[in-house]
Design a protein that fits this description.
Chain lengths: ~260, ~250
């Protein structure tokens, strides 16, 4: 993936959170470059700083040292014209309908009501939410809510899509289907996706590259290239071998995160 | 069904009142059958010709007291809730003040604002102010911080975060506080009038009571009750609207 130009560059980024029990180092000199159109997955033990890293890319979390560049420019704050985020637990506005939630970003950008309604309505088809435009989040299933959150991110049509465990709260079957669905969207829109997951299978089925992070303080432990075509089958020999490799890397870190004991 | 049960209780109360009222000294208690004519005299403006003027004055005092309570309560609540330092410094003081029975302030309010409308407005304001302020504080605590982050990520500045996230998220709690505030402002003004004034509904009540015109007194109290229940019913209507919208 070195052929495509770098759209994201994370250079020697360190982050400390100040807590009541002293500073906590969440990230330690993290460096990672992502090429345009990649599907890059971050995987690593809980608390290793994956959400923190996404927050920095989205301009929501300030860094202590190092640089984060998007499109060659340092990130100084949220930039919804370039970056859209799908958050760890949907984060829908309960007082807005499906359509109004999807429209949210366009509304903030001052897009006229009629046009943003058109954009959002058109998105409902591929989102599988056509009959649910006027429903409120509490009337939707977990998978639907997640698709609304993804729709909200797709509506502002950015080059970069950050996804923080978007399917983490779903059952396995829904999750597999949502993965296929996302893959389809990604291949059609050619967006650059930074994806966080705890599922090895999901990472292997979706990603062009997988970055494994160490236990806190998070660093990039290794980067796996997954050069296989889509759609992928978990049973294929190549993927089985990659899975074993990925698991041995992650296992070590997860053990460390648990204090070295099972 | 609920209405029937409600009416049954009302009928029972009226019956007991009628029986007890007839037995008691007419200076101390009157039965409903005596109140009805008094009410008619009152509404025909025979017993108290200045009833409309008094009612109008009381309503004006309530409107002013409540308006000021809402304005100050919103301002105070947001100032305390949005700024952690200010909130931590003054929040406990507010709670302590709220714990003092408000009536203890009334004598000094009268000294300060005189016997006329101003002291009643001040008292109604004082009573209405706290529930509004506390509702704002509770509402702010209710806002899901993740939704604020989402809004920021999609490009919302402080003003948009306030208007598009804070206000809708706290609306229901806020409207509840506004309703309580209205009820207390109404009570504050009327109690203020009863405790000492020459005009307004409370003054009429005081007058009737002082002259032992018990039937008139009860009729006036009933009218005041209608005023209070009516204003609260209006507020509850608004509240239900808000609940529908914010859920
Ligand atoms: N706002 C904050 N204040 C203090 N500490 C924080 C804050 N946000 C995160 N942390 C700490 O920083 C570390 C990294 O957190 P982060 O949420 O980035 O991890 P994560 O990899 O996304 O974890 P998970 O897989 O459980 O979502 C954790 O130890 C966490 O406790
Ligand atoms: Mg996380």
């Amino acid at each position: 993936m070195t052929a495509s130009p770098r759209i994201i560059a994370i250079e020697n980024v360190t982050k400390r959170y100040l807590t009541s029990s002293g500073p906590v180092e969440a990230l330690h000199e993290v460096s990672l470059a992502v090429g345009e159109g990649e599907f890059c997955t971050l995987i690593g033990p809980s608390g290793c700083g994956k959400s923190t890293l996404l927050g920095m890319l989205g301009g929501l979390v300030p860094l202590d040292s190092g640089r984060v560049l998007v499109d060659g420019q340092p990130v100084t704050g949220p930039d919804p014209r370039r970056v859209a985020t799908v958050f760890q637990d949907a984060g829908l506005f309960p007082w807005r309908t499906t359509l109004e939630n999807v429209e949210f970003g366009l509304e903030l950008q001052g897009v006229p009501a009629e046009r943003r309604r058109g954009v959002a309505t058109e998105l409902l088809g591929p989102l599988g939410l056509r009959g649910f435009a006027g429903k409120y989040p509490r009337e939707l299933s977990g998978g639907m809510k997640q698709r609304v959150a993804i729709g909200r991110a797709l509506a502002i049509d950015t080059k970069i899509l950050l996804m923080d465990e978007p399917f983490g709260a779903l059952d396995e079957q829904t999750r597999l289907l949502m993965g296929e669905w996302l893959l389809d969207i990604w291949r059609r829109t050619k967006k650059t996706v930074i994806f966080v997951t705890h599922s090895l299978q999901e990472a292997l089925l979706l990603s062009t590259r997988i970055a494994v992070m160490t236990a806190r303080p998070g660093r990039i432990k290794s980067v796996l290239e997954v050069g296989m075509d889509y759609p992928r089958l978990m049973e294929s020999g190549e993927l089985v071998a990659l899975r074993a490799k990925l698991w041995s890397e992650i296992r070590e870190e997860s053990l460390r995160a648990m204090g070295g004991r099972l | 069904m609920t209405v029937l049960v409600r009416l049954a209780l009302l009928a029972a109360v009226l019956a007991v009142w009628e029986v007890a009222g007839r037995a008691a000294n007419p200076l101390m208690a009157v039965p409903p059958s005596a109140v009805l004519p008094a009410l008619r005299e009152l509404l025909l403006l025979r017993s108290y010709p200045d009833l409309p003027a008094s009612l109008l004055l009381t309503l004006r005092e309530i409107a002013l007291a409540y308006g000021l309570a809402v304005a100050a309560g919103l301002a105070c609540g947001f100032a305390l809730g949005m700024n952690r330092l200010v909130g931590r410094a003054y929040g406990p003081m507010l709670a302590a003040l709220y714990a003092v029975p408000a009536v203890v302030w009334y004598p000094s309010l009268m000294l300060f604002f005189g016997l006329d409308a101003a002291s009643k407005i001040a008292f109604g304001f004082l009573l209405g102010f706290f529930p509004v302020t506390l509702a704002v504080l509770a509402g702010i605590r209710q806002v899901n911080p993740q939704l604020v982050t989402v809004a920021r990520a999609y490009g919302a500045g402080p003003v948009r975060v306030f208007a598009s996230v804070m206000v809708p998220a706290m609306l229901f709690t806020l409207v509840g506080g506004l309703r309580t505030g209205l009820a207390l402002s109404v009570i504050g003004v009327i109690v203020g009038e009863i405790l000492g004034s020459k005009r307004g509904m409370g003054a009429l009540i005081n007058h009737a009571y002082g002259l032992l015109r018990t039937a008139d007194y009860v009729a006036l109290v009933l009218m005041t009750l209608v005023l209070i229940v009516g204003s609260d019913a209006l507020a509850s209507l608004v509240e239900r609207r808000a609940r529908k919208w914010s859920e």
